[in-house]
Amino acid sequence: MINREFQAVILAAGRGSRLPEVASQTPKCLLPVGPYPLLWYPLNLLQKHSIQDAIVVVLDSQKNEIVKALEKTGIMNKMKLDITAIPADEDFGTADSLRFIHEKIKTDFLVISCDVVTNVSLFPVINKFREHNAAMATLLFPGKFDTGVTVPGPKSKEKPERDLIGIHTDSRRLLFLASTSDFEEVMSVNGHLLRKYGKFTIFSRLVDSHIYILKKWVIDLLKEKDNMSTLKGEFLPYLIKKQMTKHVGSPDNQKGSVLNAKLSDEVFEFCKVPAHEKQIIEASFFNDSRIKEPYNNDVIRCYAIESPKDTVGVRVNTTASYFAINSKINSIWSKLFTGENIPSLISPSATVNSTQIKEIAVFDSAKLSEKTSLTGSVFGAHCEIKPKNIITNSIIMGHATIEEGCKIENCIIGYKAVVGRKCVLKNCLIGPNYQVEEESDIEKVYLTNADGFMEIE
Amino acid sequence: MDQFKDREVVQAVLIADNNHFENFRPFADETSTALLPLVNVPVIDYALESLNRCGVEEVFVFSRLFINDLRQHIEKQIKSSCSWSLNMKVKIIGGEGCRCYGDALRDLDAKGLLRGHFILLQAETVTNANLIAILEEHKKNSKRDKGTAMTVVFKESAARLPTGNEVVIAMDLDNNRLHYHKRVDQYLKEKNFDIPMEIFINNSQISIHHNIVDPQIAICSPLALPLFSDNFDFGTRDDFIRGLLINEEILDSRIYVSFLSNNQYASTIGNWLTYQTISLDVINRWSYPLVPDMGICCLYQNYVFTRNNIYKSQKAKVSRKVTLKENVVIHEGSSVENGSEITNSVIGRNCKIGENCQLKNAFLMDGVTVGDNCRFEFCVVGADAVIESKCQLMEGFVVKPKEVVKTGSTLTGNEIYLDDEGLTVPVMKFLPNAFDDSDYNSSSDEEESIINGSPIPDDANIFLSEVIDSLNRGFQEKLKPDNLILEINSSRYAYNMSLKEVNFNVIKALFNLNVIQEADEKVLSAVNEVFNFFGIVVRNYIKTEESMEDCLAAIEECCLEHDILRSRVLKIIHYLYDKEYVTEEAILNWHNSMEKDSDIKNSLKQLVEWLNQSSEEESDDE
């Protein structure tokens, strides 16, 4: 067996808590995006970068369903996937999931979330990681992916949460990671941070890609820090802050002094710098600062790279971004592949009898009847579109049925939902299993029988 | 002629009153700080010459204090046709009515002398920057944004000791707009800088800079003067910036930032510390072409420039056995006798320096007489002062003009000039090249505790870390214990600590000082050193029996955290007893209150027995 430089871990055990309207019945990672489930996209990204095997972390309750869905996409033939289940009844965060599988990680590793849809090249960030022997390197997407898209359903008043990302202007060191909701009126910028690094830039429009490249020792540290349950919310900010901590046990006074060992931070137990590496740094002319030692003598180094402005990069973790990626899937589809072999957006096993189709993506076994006009929409597996329907800019989830004579515009029709005859729906969200009555004419509403379920129970 | 009529004349305003003139006492009591000689040339001439070189045509020098001295100087320079007087009109304006910077600008507004965008400069600023390029940029910007009030010029610098010129700013990277501006505290290290959230939310890229100095250069729009007039509370330029940033919507004006490139020099003199650094920068030719051998503004050569930045007037007499190491300026008519050694110093006109003197970072103004065997380090000597032989002037001592220092005096500067708030005025001292990192230790550890979540940073912890910071700094810089007590007390009120907590934390902080924590085997001598230095501080808090018990409890806690201290606890307690910090009773009470069989209790057994014995003996004696 060849020793690989990186292991890949895909975190697909999310519950889709930020898109409750669409992900309440389907596992989040199997939501249809274009002709494939969401999880297919990060796998495709890895495969494009010649990473052949990956660990996929899923909830044990959803494992079978996910395996089945992946088999249908054909990605299983190209990659060796180790699908690992974590208990569904424990409320695991991302850091908990990684901790659960820590024994499987034997090298530096790449963590990627199942909801990343992007065409970005990972090589710049991998190179940055190698170049500086970093503890962590990550990628930032340009934000504003969902501008210009009207999200169906009632208008939400919630302000979107934003990341605040502080990067040292010259060296691209990642110095600061927080969310706008962490602060109220003012943000307290740490005085030491400023004194030490002089200047840095805080970005509020960039989006953290949830693609992280991490050193092996980080998983050991993570294992130890069992009070942290999320990766981005707790563990990474912790790691980033640790960059500033001075490594007390410097080489000169390492003579086994008890005192220094006590003073030195526990973090440095994990990231020991080999002597030859120190010599390399000392001997090298490289310096990222004009007046101080290279890297400020920091042992832990985190970097962040902004992806190029024209990159497609989005995290499908809200209803808005889910709807946006689907309505734009046609324009970005060809960018997601390298080379000539761009698969069709329409699954070969789908029955497409419609004559007026434009920019649509169709899952397997979907049935699109004749005498329909379908534009810019996505049709999930086994859904059925009866004749005389006009559907524009919508998502029809798996097993949904649209009866005859409907006009549907800018809507999401949930899993196994049924839209009765002659309905006119505009900007609507139809929940799973919901039955829309015949001849309804509705706009900007969210229809669900989630409450009904509660009563049955 | 008509074609020239409409052309805009490039105007500049030079503010000759220093906001911080008290830093220059006693010099500032006698004449304008703008006339302070910097490498033997009045500092205002640097500013005028740099304006001249930029192509400025009209300058208004604004002054309130010593306006006659300034007028005389300017007239003299014009009469001697110095270089800036040839192309530039210089007018002096001023009046007793104005008390501050803001008043000066309001006065200028009332007089209506300024017609367009203009350069606003402090007279103590030394720069070789191309200000016209910045002015043009500013004009372009104000065409785009009609609300442009000011462009502030900053210069990146290496982090050195705070000198009062450092600022922290936050600006929009897309259009260089200033959003946040705060002067770095000279005395205390800020823990945090609170920047309003909306700045980050409303802009996509905000760049925060800490490594910059403010050389007091700005480009003003015609808009700026009425703003000063309308807002009578704008006293200084900092007030103006703050006022505009807070009320940007009401005032509808914005401030932009311009950075000088690496090859341009700019700095301003605000105290003796900056006086020292800028003098050496000028001697080291960072400010070229404003360097001593170019004569700054006179049109003849004063000095012969030789290796190691030695500038020596041909009319100066330097004896053969004098060592001029580096960065030395000796003006005409001066003499230095055999055996003297001079580095990093400036000697004015007609000075006499005796035999075997040592001058390091000494700045002598005109006509100073120095006797034999004197030692000067980091000091300023005013014009016509007489220093008799065998004197030692150290650490930022300032000799008044015409003062006589008696034979054999040893004088240091630290304790002499205190301003109203009990803080020392920054004095000259040795400057490290870069900030020493040592102080990150304690504070980053303190941050640790926040992240780890285990000990929540309650006020007591913050108070403790502040006390540790103060004491560490005090120990390193040998500050007066009285001032430290003041500092600790102010922290105490800030965090609302009870007396008991204060006693406890002060002692705990002492044992958490870097010297003790890093002492290893020599911990006892470190403890001795610390208690010798902070004796006054300790006795200030540990007076009563109760406070002694707090003190001992603190030591107990420190020992639990620190192995080496624990092994030496017996000796430490004995030491404290010996020096009468704690009484016998306090020790015995404390010992009794400890849990049975604890390590510390056991190790103290010996001492307790001995104490018991001796007290018995005492009572026997009675």
**How many domains would you count in the coordinates of chain B?**
3
- The beta-strand count of chain A equals 33
User: In which range does the helix fraction of chain A lie?
Assistant: 10-25%
* CATH class descriptor name of the largest domain in chain A: Alpha Beta
How much strand content do the residues of chain A show?
25-35%
* Major β-sheet annotation of chain A: 7 strands, mixed
Would you tell me which CATH topology of the largest domain in chain B applies?
Spore Coat Polysaccharide Biosynthesis Protein SpsA, Chain A
Overall description:
- The complex is a heterodimer of chains A (457) and B (622).
- Chain A has 457 residues and is of the alpha/beta class.
- Chain A has 2 domains: 269 residues, Spore Coat Polysaccharide Biosynthesis Protein SpsA, Chain A (Alpha-Beta Complex), CATH 3.90.550; 113 residues, UDP N-Acetylglucosamine Acyltransferase, domain 1.
- In chain A, 25% of the residues lie in helices and 26% in strands.
- A 7-stranded mixed beta sheet of chain A has the order 5-4-1-6-13-8-14, sandwiched between helices.
- In chain A, a hairpin with a 5-residue loop joins β9 and β10.
- Chain A is elongated, with a radius of gyration of 25 Å.
- The C terminus of chain A is likely disordered.
- By secondary structure, chain B is of the alpha/beta class.
- Chain B has 3 domains: 264 residues, Spore Coat Polysaccharide Biosynthesis Protein SpsA, Chain A (Alpha-Beta Complex), CATH 3.90.550.10; 140 residues, 3 Solenoid (UDP N-Acetylglucosamine Acyltransferase, domain 1); 185 residues, Serine Threonine Protein Phosphatase 5, Tetratricopeptide repeat.
- In chain B, strands 15, 16, 18, 19, 21, 22, 24, 26, 28, 29 and 31 form an 11-stranded mixed beta sheet that branches. In chain B, strands 1, 4, 5, 6, 8, 9, 10, 12 and 13 form a 9-stranded mixed beta sheet that branches.
- In chain B, α6 crosses α9, α15 packs across α18 and α22 crosses α23.
- About 5% of the residues of chain B have low confidence.
- Chains A and B meet through β11, α7, β12, α9 and α10 of A and β11, α8, β12 and α13 of B.
- β12 of chain A pairs antiparallel with β12 of chain B.
